[in-house]
Amino acid sequence: MKELRPTVAVLHFGANDDHSYMTGLPKGVTIGSFGTASWKKEYGRRVGGVMDTVARGGGHTIWLGLPITRSPTQTQRFDVINAVVLHEAKKRPATATYVDTYTSFAGDDGGFAEYLEDRRGRRVKVRAGDGVHFERAGGEMIARMVLKRLNEMYDLTSWRRQKPA
After folding, report:
1. Mean pLDDT by 10 residues, the chain (165 residues)
2. Dihedral through CA 52, CA 57, CA 60, CA 65, nearest 10?
3. What is the reported pTM?
4. How many CB atoms neighbour CB 150 within 10 A?
5. Distances (CA, A) of 69 to 14, 29, 73, 111
6. φ, ψ of residue 46 in degrees (nearest 5)
7. Which residue among 39, 103, 150, 155 has its CA within the 20 to 30 Å range from the CA of 20?
8. What is the DSSP code string of 4-70?
């Protein structure tokens, strides 16, 4: 962060964090099971630390939340992670933004959707067969969500309105 000094860091991770094991705890320190208050506190400390590291480098964090999945059990676990990340981002409104991929990739019934309509109204496959990852079309939808947020924070389109000299 000190060397590159990015204006924005777009992050998307945490899907493998839905367990009780965490490395890097001080000797003798333990955390409770996944989702307990002690687990959430430590996970929040780590998420907040990442956000603060980006901010100290002069950047803004855009953190992509975890999506709804085909597995209701996994989705419930992702809900816990998303709640912690959202909480940490809300504590840092000037330097962190949470982007919700969960509801954006839910179907009409609010559940998992493998296919959704794209910008042109075509039904496209947005999720991989594993029920977790995204297909290219899903990634493009996420990219547009990120660009929308970036355009809210920065002027990304004024160059279009400028007349050539």
Report:
1. 89 90 80 91 94 95 96 96 98 96 92 93 95 95 94 80 67
2. -50
3. 0.89
4. 17
5. 14, 32, 9, 8
6. -70, -45
7. 103
8. T--SEEEE---TT--SS--S-PPTT----STTSHHHHHHHHHHHHHHHHHHHHTT-EEEEEPPPP-S
Compute the distance between CA of residue 40 and CA of residue 38 in angstroms, rounded to an integer. 5
- How far, in Å, CA of 59 to CA of 95, rounded? 7
Residue 15: both structure tokens together: 């899907």
Residue 82, classed as helix, strand or coil, is helix
Q: What residue has token string 């009780």? A: 20
Give the integer Cα–Cα distance in Å for 115 and 98. Answer: 24
Rounded Cα–Cα distance for residues 70 and 9 (Å): 28
SS3 128: coil
